[in-house]
Fold each of these.
Amino acid sequence: MRIIETKRAPNPRRVAIFLAEKGIDVPREERDLMSGDLRQDDFSALNPWQRVPVLVLDDGTAISESVAICRYFEEIHPEPPLFGTGAIGKAEVEMWNRRVELGLFNAVASVFRHLHPKMAHLEVPQVTPWGEANKEKVESELTRLDRRLAESDFVAGASFSIADITALVAIDFMKPAKLAAPEGHAHIMRWYQEVSARPSASA
Amino acid sequence: MRIIETKRAPNPRRVAIFLAEKGIDVPREERDLMSGDLRQDDFSALNPWQRVPVLVLDDGTAISESVAICRYFEEIHPEPPLFGTGAIGKAEVEMWNRRVELGLFNAVASVFRHLHPKMAHLEVPQVTPWGEANKEKVESELTRLDRRLAESDFVAGASFSIADITALVAIDFMKPAKLAAPEGHAHIMRWYQEVSARPSASA
């Protein structure tokens, strides 16, 4: 098996951290999303949505979408559990991962995609007022996340989970999106220092 | 347990169809998202993101995000499986559900939220050029979905799954979003007629 990725892009990083937490090593193959390389026919055949990462299994099956790739590894390598345990625990991790992804992560990504000059040839059309509206959304999502982390060690509860990975990658993605670090949010900063210090954060 | 929902809103409908496919009956409580009722303190305490549906368990645990609610019921009532079976099958359902949700479903919702006059008091700010850009995205997502359904009985493969529910709800949501039905896409229409004829579609 192998993973096709663009190093340093946020979604491939989610999978890289997930695998590092599990202690799984998978060969990586680099393709540069910024150059339009994902629009080549051979890559589109693997993922018609033309995005990285893609996990290619030995039988040729191609799995894209980072959460789907992580789900595959959770199934074949359950320890440590990163999608929660028990019916309620699994639902809570899914809920928190979605809240962070559909909220903060997507808002930061929208600022990057719709305002950064480097994205003009990939995000067509760039919609400047949409990028601006998402700057406000980033703030409201950070406020909600800070309230959560005031009462919980990790995003989804007492244990580190995929929701922490999504939140960590979202916050680190604020820098290329030219958004100021969330230093005014004390609970986020407490949590951020902890999760950033895990060896997986540099995977 | 009970589910708090707004009848006819797309995300509560995803859960309603899912439960009908499982044969599970859960009491429903109506709150009208259009009136701003979800911004009341009692509801915000259940879901700080102020969205329906929310599943409230007997111990008071509140699960929001429709896919997380569905995941809970998949765990406690596995048959028939709607999130796939086996590591590859589960990853493929997750991949397809995400492709449809982050693609078609979100694009249709963005058209509705950013262009419909009825949404002006809820979607602040409405970004008209973003709504317009999503009309084009709906078309490209339909084209990809049509290609998939040319080669597959259901969205995620040979079996009906949560990905079909997400796609069905997205397509039915095109009407309130004032988008024309996808009649030019023959494979989507073949599939649409089949899934619409299931008893769960009217749940």
Amino acid sequence: MDTIVSSSNQPALFSRSINLRIVSPIKSDDKSRNVYVTVEFQTGSSMQTEFILKLTDEDDPFFLYELHLNVDDFKNLKRDQGVLVDFNAFPQHVIDYLKLCIRDQHNETTPSNGSRFQLQLVNDEQQFTNQTHLRVVEISSFKHLTHLSLLVTSANDHEIKNYLARRLQSKTTDYNQLSNDFEKLKRELESTQLDLKEKTANFQKLKLEWDSNNNQIVGRHMQELAEEKEKALQ
Amino acid sequence: MDTIVSSSNQPALFSRSINLRIVSPIKSDDKSRNVYVTVEFQTGSSMQTEFILKLTDEDDPFFLYELHLNVDDFKNLKRDQGVLVDFNAFPQHVIDYLKLCIRDQHNETTPSNGSRFQLQLVNDEQQFTNQTHLRVVEISSFKHLTHLSLLVTSANDHEIKNYLARRLQSKTTDYNQLSNDFEKLKRELESTQLDLKEKTANFQKLKLEWDSNNNQIVGRHMQELAEEKEKALQ
């Protein structure tokens, strides 16, 4: 899955399917969908290390949200949300949160004496800014507690175009690989079928040979027996 | 291939790989590449019939040129290029030209007593309009004769995005189909291998049985022979 959303040669730190709750403050009907969340931490051509988070959907080619965070952006996030860890430690903390969301994603109800984690995509439409945040929310019987809120942006046509080209390339590579494997398997099947045919033919042939051989032995013995009987009569 | 570039459910009239000559009036080094040319003639949601021509490249996801021609556009083309046929007959004439280009695409030289057809993509960069024309050109030893010149437009990000989504969908469908076929073939191979193993085991088993049976027959006859000899001695 990594190759689908990864724009570099470095492998993603994390790429898993997670149930995402789509929350709209002005609409009461929340929806949820399974999306792929990919976390990368990489040094680009500008030699600047970036924390990159992507939301994609296998079934919806136009669903693509991204967050690119460099060390300066992170300073703001650290201040605004009271984060204590440094930039290098940040990706693993995000991944740990995502794993908590995966752990709890099939719990529809909150345990009475505990809490559950949920990943939410929140459209702040009421603020007229049309900003979208990805939130890790802990739901207890007491309240909704936002542990982390990351501003993500919906990709534009140009970005989706590039993303789809990578997905297409990846799918084409997979297809060609499978096609090769298929041909290999086909040849193996043909060869095995030929072996089976040969074995069956040999089986029949040998059976005939044994029958004929058997008749010969019986014939020879009958003859020897007759000769012996004749000798005895003389 | 149709599904890759077709935006409707109606099948394309024509979809073939053709060697396309990329001609730039200001650059002397012409290049050529194999592209897919797709011709559609369809009635869209606006109930207006359109002649649609698309140029795509399997290996270059961002290569997409399009021409959409309705009956009014066609009137201009008819007047400008002295075309005599009507709108409904136009697609077949274009297709016939494309087939001539395919027929001649491996002829590098012009026959001395004849001519050859070539499909060209011409960037009119020198006119500062940056227009691109798809031209069907007949090359004889005398001159280059343009039979048809169609103004095509390079697709923008939004169009390429939609085109790639369709290609991805099509490739995914193909992949899933192949994956099913692969699993089917795998089961068939496993079953055939099992048959072969069984047949080999039966073969060995029967061989042992025949050997033992044979020994029994020989043994019995030796005994009968001995008994007969003994009788003769008495």
